[in-house]
Amino acid sequence: MKQIISLLLVMLLLFTAAAPALAASDNQPDPVVIVPGLMETILVTGRGTENEERFFEPVFGAVDTLKFKLLFGAVLALFGKYDVLVNATTAVSDASVQRLAMNPDGTSVYELTPYATEAADCTLEAIQNSGAWEHVDFGAQHAEALAERIGADRVFIFDYDWRLGADTLAGRLDGFIADVKALTGSEKVDVYANSYGCQVVAYYLYACNGAGSLDNVVLSCPAFAGTTLFMDLLSATEKSLDIDVKASVSFMMRLFRFEEDLENLVWLLPDRIVRRVVYPCVHDITLKYLVSSAGLWGCCPVEDYEEMKALLLDPVENAAVIAQSDAIHAGLMSHIRETLENARAAGVDVSIIAGAGTQLMSGNNVDGDATVDTRHSTGGTAAVFGKTLPDAPESVHRSPYGTLDLTDGYLPDNTWVIQGLTHGQTAWDTEAQALVLRLLLTDDLPDVYADPLFPQFTNSHSPCDDVSLLFPGTGASVLRASEGECTAVLRNESEKNTVYVTAVTVSGGTYVVKNAAGKLAPKETRTVTFVPVRPLKNVNAAKVTVYYAEQSAVKAFKSRTVVCSVA
Questions:
Q1: Which of these three, 330, 347, 381, is where a domain ends?
Q2: Secondary structure of 179-227 as H, E, C letters
Q3: What pTM was computed for the model?
Q4: Which of 236, 246, 334, 436 has the most CB atoms lying inside 10 A of its own CB?
Q5: Ordered strands of the 557-566 beta sheet
Q6: Which residues contact residue 474 at a Cβ distance below 8 angstroms, ignoring those fewer than 6 apart?
Q7: Are 212 and 348 in contact (CB under 8 A)?
Q8: How far from the centroid of its chain's Cα atoms is residue 442's Cα?
Q9: What's the rounded mean pLDDT across residues 122-126?
Q10: What is the mean pLDDT of residues 145-165?
Q11: Is residue 220 part of a domain?
Q12: Which of 554, 525, 518 is nearest to 467 (CA)?
């Protein structure tokens, strides 16, 4: 008995001595789990064997083999002969997509699996050490910036098969987060999700009682309510398919971190060529291989689901997929607002970052981020692309562009919208990444009113945009016309191109902008002064345009207009 008592006393002393160390560990930041989006995780065949290969790697060989046929086909297409180009592009698409094939019941035809599933193998540190980091796509784009703050061993990337439904993946995320907590000794984790990954996280909150394990959650360019792009592409005929070339090229430039201006070159391709090339890839490849993917059906907007289901799914062959998709749409996707509100009420700091100001790649007249329409990502009311909403002076959640009102959105006080931000590109936008890190790693930005440096509505600051204009202390969004002279910072966002600013103008008033003209090297800034000659009066917003010449030989003379609130 004495031995037992002595052992208990020793254990008590050890615990008392360890208490300060345990208390100190409580000050460690929460680990961060990154949940990438559709087609952004590492799926491989032959996992763990010498034949292990990423699902789309054969596309490089196909392009190399068919490059002369592609070029020859492009020339023939200019003369109205499309067969060679269509056959070549379809072959390239087939090489990259065929191993994604799903059976009618929603199971995988090929043995395609995530690269890593155990939490211990999914830290940034482990992925970098294994050499797999070079294969991680853009959904994990903030990982290295986070690692600089909290350590590469506390940043986890949830690798999953995005072809599966959000309900299935939410259950796996539940186990993954439990393992992260056990590995790190943390009571809660922070989560950054992108695109379809936001739907997975929302389903985790909806059905898995996830609120108890989460602290800060940032949902970037969320697709938890689907996207009109799904309906546009999969219900289009060759004649009705209307690809927006500029939006598509702009998105791809940002996706691959490419700063050159290719819009003018692409516009040389007649629309008929684009339709004839893209349509077979969408119709023959996507429908052939992915129509039975519950993950893809999670991208169908709720309002279009029944129509699209009747059009594309067989009630007998696809019965299992239909049952799962019905449950997803009737469950989470019809209850996004209350799911997010309930999470916040339970103490989870949920925030949304959405893009706006870009037409969908499908050419639909919907405002969005090229991939997801803004009304679906925010729950707000959005105008037809290129139009504005009726005046609503009493609204505190109306964008200065007049195109979006978040009053009835999912989280009006916790949704940030960045004009010109394309889908999932927050890490290439300096202000957007600062917002992501602030929301994830601190608790001092509880809503859109907390800090004028992070206003609810702002403009993108991507290298592809070349120049930006920031009004100090206002997050680039407020021109303080009532204060007389005011200053702003003009910045060359490009990482490699020099720009030559020629003028800055303000619509609706007359301003002399001092120190605006001149050369700006990559990433260089210059302070300019707005001197009112005829100040802005009785307006809520103003267009400020920067005129400049770019060093690039493809497209030299440009301008960028940002819309600022007026105070």
A1: 330
A2: HHHHHHCCCCEEEEEECHHHHHHHHHHHHCCHHHHEEEEEEECCCCCCC
A3: 0.89
A4: 436
A5: 478-479, 557-566, 541-550, 499-506, 518-520
A6: 452, 453, 455, 480
A7: no
A8: 21
A9: 94
A10: 94
A11: no
A12: 525
Amino acid 190 reads: D
Residue 288's Cβ-side half-sphere holds a number of Cα atoms within 13 Å equal to 12
- Supply 411's token pair: 């989280």
In a domain, 273, yes or no: yes
Neighbouring C-alpha atoms within 13 Å toward the C-beta of 164 = 20
Fill in the amino acid letter for 538. N
Q: Residue 547's domain spans which residues? A: 466-566
Going by their DSSP bridges, the two strands 189-194 and 381-382 should be labelled as unpaired
Spatial contact of 509 and 492, defined as CB atoms under 8 Å apart: no
Is pLDDT above 50 for 13? no
- Closest-CA residue to 286 (of 232, 356, 227, 338): 232
The CATH number of the domain where 485 resides is what?
Answer: 2.60.40.10
CA 392, CA 398: separation in Å to the nearest integer?
8
Beta-carbon contacts of 35 under 8 Å, excluding residues fewer than 6 positions away, are: 139, 158, 160, 173, 191, 192, 193, 194, 197, 198, 200, 201
Helix (H, G, I), strand (E, B) or coil at 235: coil
pLDDT in tens, 395-414: 889 998 889 999 999 999 99
Q: Which residue has the tokens 């009112």?
A: 532
**Inside any domain, residue 85:** yes
Answer yes or no: is 435 within a domain: no
What is the pLDDT at residue 556? 66
How many folded domains does the chain comprise?
2
The span from the CA of 396 to the CA of 456, in Å, is 10
DSSP 423-481: TT-GGGSHHHHHHHHHHHH-SS--STTS-TTS-SEEE---GGG-EEEE-TTTTT-EE-G
Q: Among the three residues 288, 303, 330, which one is the final residue of a domain in this structure?
A: 330
**Number of CB atoms found within 10 A of residue 249's CB:** 20
At residue 533's C-alpha, the angle toward residues 531 and 538, to 5°, is 100
CA distances from 228 to 194, 233, 308, 365 (A): 17, 9, 11, 10
Residue pair 416/353 in contact by the 8 Å Cβ criterion: yes
| Six token digits for residue 297 | 């059906």
Q: Which amino acid is at 527?
A: T
Helix/strand/coil for 233: helix
Residue 123 DSSP class: B
Strands 349-356 and 415-419: parallel
Q: Does the pLDDT value for residue 1 go beyond 50? A: no
CA distances (Å), 276 to each of 84, 128, 201, 240, 400, in order? Answer: 11, 41, 38, 11, 39
